[in-house]
Design a protein that fits this description.
The protein is an alpha/beta fold. The chain has helices at residues 9-12, 39-52, 71-82, 87-97, 110-116, 118-128, 143-155, 169-176, 202-212, 226-233, 243-252, 256-266, and strands spanning 27-33, 56-60, 104-107, 132-134, 158-159, 162-163, 183-186, 217-220, 238-241. Strands 5-4-3-2-1-9-8-7-6 form a 9-stranded parallel beta sheet. Helix 9 links the parallel strand 7 (183-186) and strand 8 (217-220).
Length: 267
């Protein structure tokens, strides 16, 4: 984790978190979908990820138009919605996942947040035990972005910026003024899970990010193997995997396979 300080996750997220960043070894944030395969099973998926060694659990609230997600997660979100997943039910999942002793980061899109109302949504995820929020389609410097930032700050929720290689340095400086928690950096421009070919500009881009901000850098999109994790561990503080778990779960139909997949990724 060259270039960053070793921090406790309570420094990164929330005072109630006690887990420490592993010295010299990046954390792993595992992505899951509330309601996939079903609401009860998604809670078991989270438990399997924790048992497998995940350090942070990213819980996606399914939405009908997940523009940043590849086909694997998009189809899983659609299936979850067809089986009755709602924001209210996702909040129940988040609350249960938060009891497993790992920081919980909520990922969703602006539409569900806007429909509930920003203050009510942030209050709800905070009460459920979330420590961070990722909303990839809400730029910080918009009317909704400013409102979301202020509300998250008041609630102690880290609003995590999403960036991709190619974002200009001046833009990063603007985002860094309000960024909290950590940076979510994609391995390339595009959607999740599409390929394990990472942008050649990624190491240099992360170096630029570190020159601007001391926040930890999380890197994801296309993480499918132990080799991917090892490669990204050379530049990232946090490695992110998501589609790999959904794909494995879809093939096997057994929740316990998720724990095995998690262990195989981090070694």
């Amino acid at each position: 984790m060259k270039g960053t300080k070793t921090k406790t996750l309570e420094e990164i997220f929330h005072p109630s978190t006690t887990l420490r960043v592993k010295s010299g070894k990046p954390l792993f944030m595992a992505h899951m979908i509330a309601g996939y395969p079903t609401i009860p099973e998604s809670v078991q998926v989270a438990k399997a990820l924790v048992k497998g060694g995940a350090d942070i659990i990213e819980v996606q609230i399914p939405f009908s138009d997940p523009m940043a997600d590849g086909p694997t997660i998009a189809v899983a979100c659609e299936e979850a919605l067809k089986k009755g997943a709602t924001v209210a039910k996702a909040l129940v999942v988040i609350k249960k996942v938060a009891t497993f002793g790992k920081p919980v980061v909520v990922m969703t899109y602006m539409n569900p947040v806007y429909r509930m109302g920003i203050p009510k949504f942030i209050e709800a995820i905070s009460k459920a035990g979330a420590t961070g929020l990722i909303v990839p389609d809400c730029p910080f410097d918009t009317q909704d972005g400013w409102s979301l930032l202020a509300t998250c700050k008041a609630a102690g929720i880290a609003l995590i910026p999403v960036v991709s290689p190619g974002v200009p340095k001046e833009r990063l400086k603007t985002l860094a003024k309000d960024a909290t928690g950590f940076w979510y950096c994609t391995t390339r421009q595009g959607i999740t899970g599409a390929t394990s070919v990472f942008a050649s500009a990624l190491p240099g881009f992360i170096k630029t990010m570190r020159s601007i901000s001391e926040l930890p850098v999380a890197v994801g999109f296309g993480v499918k193997s132990r080799k991917d994790v090892k490669d990204l561990s050379k530049v990232a503080d946090i490695v992110i995997g998501g589609s790999v778990f959904v794909a494995t779960l879809k093939r096997s139909k057994k929740v316990l396979i998720v724990e095995k997949t998690m262990r195989s990724l981090i070694g």
